[in-house]
């Protein structure tokens, strides 16, 4: 049975239209975060910026790793089984609350180890970990919205940086910024986000749901491989910053943080392709399970292939383009916007750029594979990247410092990228030699539509 092009083009248009909307929201979030980061950098200086980065990096890494993969499991099962979504969210929220309490207590105790000689910074660190249960509980609602109502999910994501940046602006104008009140802005905005996510989910869900033992078992069964994949990914993404906090002065951590922020400008766009693909692929695979007709199976297999290839191709192109433009603009922008003291960040950006251009695509490929319930494959690929990170940092960071950490990060992202590309192509049944052929098949319809759109303008001329 030949499916033809008529059925594939709506798949492309529906997927990409949703991606564009999500990417637009992600860009807005990135702009808000950049404005907030700029104000923090200018008001606190490199040393204060470094301390603030250490506190928030530890808090976010703990929130991401400590959930043990349950947030991704909530998104996956809500997308696959909409009728059981209330039970999934209610059960997942209870499990996340327990994990949040454990992680919060651990961070509270560990604060003096991270800041042994800075009481104010240690207090801010403790405050960030006391708030961990809020992070964890709100994540259940947020990831459920990703599976069911992307516009609401985008709004919930945006309200956190919007609130944080607004309060930072107010503090800068009224009383000045300190590390303590900057962290308070971060925590307060998270509370606002949690409240909005809860409100949206109550409107989305028709029932409150119940805690069910079977649902908990299903969540943990899916979450285990996700956890095994997220730990090495978070190590690759954050280990450089966490290690530098112990090896170099806060001023250098601040310079490195600015370079990392600039190198990550492409990630919101690239990640949008995976954010939309993950629940979409979960629904497609659920349809394959629920229907036994060969025609439906063939259609869904083709849809899976096209969504996966679109996610990988467009996220890679976006990463290369945005990071390349940032590298060209940085020598002029950094001194003009942040001041001459941040000039060394430009050289760090150039060292981070090769890996940063690939990192957003890595995120998208992780989500593609998780949407197909292949989290163990992600774990193997990201694990290899984490090993490369550890080796690179162990060799380069003690001798070359922050420049060595940048080089090690780029190498690690490249290793993970190569393995993830091979894994995605293998699961969708596309040999490497056929990638150019499939790329032309995906791009030609868009080129034809662009040509048709331009023809009236040419004829008028």
UniProtKB/TrEMBL annotation:
Cellular-component GO terms for this entry: plasma membrane
Top-rank taxon, per record: Bacteria
Chain segments annotated as transmembrane: 20-40, 52-79, 94-115, 127-148, 168-201, 307-334, 346-365, 377-396, 402-425
Subcellular location(s) per record: Cell membrane
Keywords, ordered alphabetically: Cell membrane, Membrane, Transmembrane, Transmembrane helix
Major location category of this protein: membrane
Membrane association type: Multi-pass membrane protein
Name recorded for this polypeptide: Polysaccharide biosynthesis protein
Native source organism of the sequence: Candidatus Frankia alpina
Lineage of the organism: Bacteria, Bacillati, Actinomycetota, Actinomycetes, Frankiales
């Amino acid at each position: 049975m030949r499916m033809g092009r008529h059925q594939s083009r709506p798949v492309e248009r529906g997927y990409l239209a949703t991606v564009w909307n999500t990417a637009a929201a992600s860009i807005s979030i990135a702009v808000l975060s950049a404005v907030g980061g700029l104000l923090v950098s200018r008001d606190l200086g490199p040393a204060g910026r470094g301390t603030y980065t250490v506190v928030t990096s530890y808090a976010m890494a703990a929130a991401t790793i400590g959930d043990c993969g349950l947030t991704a499991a909530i998104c996956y099962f809500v997308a696959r089984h909409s009728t059981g979504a209330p039970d999934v969210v209610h059960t997942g929220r209870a499990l996340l609350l327990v994990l949040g309490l454990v992680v919060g207590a651990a961070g509270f105790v560990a604060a003096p180890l991270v800041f042994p000689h800075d009481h104010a910074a240690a207090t801010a660190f403790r405050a960030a970990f006391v708030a961990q249960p809020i992070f964890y509980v709100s994540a259940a609602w947020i990831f459920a919205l990703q599976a069911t109502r992307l516009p609401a999910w985008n709004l919930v994501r945006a309200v956190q940086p919007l609130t944080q940046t607004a309060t930072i602006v107010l503090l800068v104008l009224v009383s000045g910024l300190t590390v303590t009140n900057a962290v308070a802005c971060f925590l307060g905005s998270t509370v606002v986000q949690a409240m909005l996510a809860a409100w949206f989910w109550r409107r989305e869900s028709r029932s409150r749901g119940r805690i069910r033992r079977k649902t908990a078992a299903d969540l943990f069964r899916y979450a285990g491989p996700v956890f095994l994949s997220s730990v090495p990914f978070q190590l690759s993404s954050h280990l450089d910053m966490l290690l530098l906090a112990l090896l170099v002065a806060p001023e250098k951590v601040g310079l490195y943080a600015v370079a990392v922020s600039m190198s990550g400008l492409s990630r919101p766009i690239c990640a949008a392709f995976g954010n939309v693909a993950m629940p979409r692929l979960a629904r497609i695979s659920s349809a394959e399970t629920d229907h036994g007709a060969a025609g439906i199976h063939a259609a869904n297999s083709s849809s899976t292939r096209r969504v996966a290839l679109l996610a990988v191709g467009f996220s890679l192109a976006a990463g290369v383009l945005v990071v390349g433009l940032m590298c060209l603009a940085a020598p002029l922008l950094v001194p003009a916007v942040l001041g001459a003291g941040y000039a060394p960040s430009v050289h760090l950006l150039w060292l981070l750029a090769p890996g940063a251009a690939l990192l957003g695509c890595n995120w998208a490929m992780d989500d593609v594979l998780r949407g197909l319930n292949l989290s163990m494959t992600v774990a193997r690929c990201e694990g290899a990247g984490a090993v490369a990170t550890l080796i690179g940092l162990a060799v380069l960071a003690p001798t070359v410092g922050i420049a060595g950490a940048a080089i090690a990060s780029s190498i690690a992202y490249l290793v993970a990228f190569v393995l993830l590309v091979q894994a995605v192509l293998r699961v969708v049944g596309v040999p490497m030699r056929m990638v150019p052929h499939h790329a032309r098949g995906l791009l030609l319809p868009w080129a034809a539509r662009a040509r048709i759109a331009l023809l009236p303008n040419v004829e008028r001329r």
